[in-house]
Amino acid sequence: MASHIVGYPRMGPKRELKFALESFWDGKSSAEDLKKVAADLRSSIWKQMADAGIKHIPSNTFSYYDQVLDTTAMLGAVPPRYNWNGGEIGFDIYFSMARGNASVPAMEMTKWFDTNYHFIVPELGPDVKFSYASHKAVDEYKEAKALGVDTVPVLIGPVSYLLLSKPAKGVEKTFPLLSLLGKILPIYKEVVSELKAAGASWIQFDEPTLVMDLDSHKLQTFTDAYAELESSLSGLNVLIETYFADVPSEAYKTLTALKGVSAYGFDLVRGANTLDLIKGGFPKGKYLFAGVVDGRNIWANDLAASFGTLDSLEGIVGKDKLVVSTSCSLLHTAVDLVNETKLDKEIKSWLAFAAQKVVEVNALAKALAGHKDEAFFSSNAAAQASRKSSPRVTNEAVQKAAAALKGSDHRRATNVSTRLDAQQKNLNLPILPTTTIGSFPQTIELRRVRREYKAKKISEDEYVMAIKEEISKVVKLQEDLDIDVLVHGEPERNDMVEYFGEQLSGFAFTVNGWVQSYGSRCVKPPIIYGDVSRPKPMTVFWSSTAQSMTARPMKGMLTGPVTILNWSFVRNDQPRYETCYQIALAIKDEVEDLEKAGINVIQIDEAALREGLPLRKSEQAYYLEWAVHSFRITNCGVKDTTQVYLSPSFRRHCLAFCFIMVASIIIF
């Protein structure tokens, strides 16, 4: 029984690539130094998978910045502003496209489907001169082979690449990007030809757009693309990989009828309904890569449940045609649980990061082949049972409070105009008041103070004094600029989600649980493992302190429940909306305590509201219903005189002085 990994994190267990990249960008190390770190990381990843017994090990999933940008480089689709003169694309052009340079801006960056990862959007048009300009896919295959590891080279599929692109500046917005298919396929053919010559026996095309709502024209493009590639792919086993959601029935029909394709990969975690399509008919003699190990969360796999799913699939596709896989690339999870030496032991037993998921995949494959590791399965079952029965997971009071929310939409009792009149009488603001989004720059000195306080190198009194001094500076600056509604600048906060999670029950935190967001930027999502509640006020002291420094209104600053949910690793033992409602109740408590403390303007940031939006339109209304309901819960109990801002914008600490509110703000 074979095993497969869709992709693997690139940053390294201790963010080695991040530091190497930033050192190179700062001119502190050479290109060769960066390449050495990258080669060492790739080598260790391939060796790790080989040692774990994985048969289908991916290559070309490593990237210095982004896999879509790598494809843009492969196709030579460099926008003219970067003055590329042809030849193999090197770091100068590559990083200019990713980050911009002194004279031209970077290419646009946007979310990779519904994940927290970002990709660089290709800029295309009728005048783009495509050429084979990066041999990275072939080079990395050869590199792995020289190390004794025969890998499966991974390419972003040609149709998904075009569907993820945008018309370049100056090109009509209605330009049909799929019309460029005939121009990029010759380059794909060249890459395939070189991979075959190098000895590759498998190739993986990632076509994740197949899970989207695609019309018949777009689906036909997949048929046309692989029909054109068929002769080039002859002699190779070709895997088309999909992930992040169910494959719609029409897309499933298109996918399983593609010419030259011998294997299909499906996300059976987020796309469980795809199982029904497989059971309803799967092409005879084709391979099924069954993504049963979650690539987007950190929970240990329920091996017994996954084994049951795989066993039923084996009866449909045949023992020799079933491959155990991850649901998607492990890029979206943390790297290695071994590095979490400070994590609570019981909670740690419930988790699996990328390195552990590789082991889970192989354990399932071995079990299906009749070589079940009884001790490993037994340990897993014990951990699953522990998680289900642990008193730290369940809080009956929280569950009762959340259950009581049903039956109300939690709108505020009076209408908007009534509230605005009451708020105006209370706040006496001008017609167009000014404010800031909230956070001021996180200086080196501020970070030092927080770090030393956490390490107990300074006392609590010294810490409070330092933070108060910073707040005082921020308040004075805003008064000098005649800002109407002030903020305290959030100098005490490390991150807009982590800060709150650290003060809520049901959350756990890692030391090295970093996940790539884009380029060298990594985030460390909190882990929501149990019912969420607020043991005590979280922001009232600092907001009250700031209000005492000014006669002007001081905004209370909170992160909303949907953003906290979407920027965390969320428990998978109950629906996401239930966890969101619990967080909403905790934020509601904080809102009402701020009001009692004399804070009459409260901003609730929902920067990640859209990130949880399902990929399929048919599922979006339900998500928006409970997401908006969660926000309403947070502020349904305040007085008419209290003004509540919803800020759906994303704010960065590097935006030092934004004194007119430029993001969209909705006032309640």
UniProtKB/TrEMBL annotation:
Pathway: Amino-acid biosynthesis; L-methionine biosynthesis via de novo pathway; L-methionine from L-homocysteine (MetE route): step 1/1. It comes from Carya illinoinensis (Pecan). This is 5-methyltetrahydropteroyltriglutamate--homocysteine S-methyltransferase. Its EC number is 2.1.1.14. Residues 3-315 form the Cobalamin-independent methionine synthase MetE N-terminal domain. Catalyzes the transfer of a methyl group from 5-methyltetrahydrofolate to homocysteine resulting in methionine formation. It is an enzyme of class 2 (transferase). Its cofactor is Zn(2+). One of its GO terms (biological process) is methylation.
